[in-house]
C-alpha cells in the first residue's frame, strides 16, 4: 500500500505540474557527490561525468576486509526539451576480498558492476523562472545576495530508470532480477547567492528481494573565487541486506564553463563494515548544439501573461503615444 501511494504522488507531480528548466551557463554536474540535482543538462547538450575511486572495508563481526578500486561514469543527454534528460550511469569495481576467520586467511579477487542504470529525469517544477524576471536592486549588493525565505522553495525533478544486473555478478545474490526499476525524487534550492541544497529520496531495485530505500542530503558552497566550490553530504541507506549512514565531503574546480575537476572523501559510521573511500573525477559537456530558447512562463504566471507578448503590446502602445 505504501508503495502504491508513493507512485501515486510521483505520478501527480509528473503529470500536473508545469515547469521549465533552465540551461546554465556553467556546467551543472552531479559529481563528486552521490546525489542528483533537479536540473537537466539542457536540450541537445551531451555531458560526460566520470572518475575513479578507492575504498577500504573492514567488517568487525565477520572478520573480513575488502580493498577495492573502481571506475564510475554517467552519460547525460538533453532530449526534446529543456526539462528532459536521459542518462546511462554505472559503477564498476575490482577488489580483493580477504577472510581472516580462517588460518591461513583466504583471499578472493572479484569484479563487477555495483550499479548499472539507464533512465530519464524530468524537471517538473522550477521556481527560478519567475525569479529571473525580477529586476536586481541596483543600490544594494546585500539585497541581491542575502538570504530570502522564498529561495528555499526548491526546483523538483523526477528520475525513473532501470537497473541492469549481468549474470555472475559477485555483488548481488543469484536471485537478483536482471532488470528492476529505480525512482528518485530530487529537489534543489539556491539561496544566499552562493549556496545550493539538494535532497534525494530513492526507491531502488523495487522488484528485487533486496529492494532499497535511501535519502541523500547535499550542501554545496561556491567561494569568492567562483571557480572553486565545496560540498558536504549525508546519505542514509536501508534494505534487508544492508543499512548504513555515509558522510562525504569534497570540492570541485572549474577549468572552464564546460570542464570541471573534482575530488572527495567519505566514511561510514558503522563497523559492519567500516568504510573509508576517496574519489577523483572530471565532468565535461558538449553544448555546441544547444540553442537558447525563449521559455514561456504563462502557465506559472497567475495572470496568464506571456512576457514576450506583453513586451510587444507595450511597444505598440508606446508607438501609438508617439503618433499622438
TrEMBL record:
Location of the region described as Disordered in the Swiss-Prot/TrEMBL record: 295-324
Composition-biased stretches (Acidic residues): 313-324
Superkingdom of origin organism: Bacteria
Compositionally biased spans, kind Basic and acidic residues: 300-312
Keyword Signal tagged: yes
Signal peptide: 1-21
UniProt entry tagged with the keyword Cell membrane: no
Name of protein: Transporter
Organism: Kordia aestuariivivens
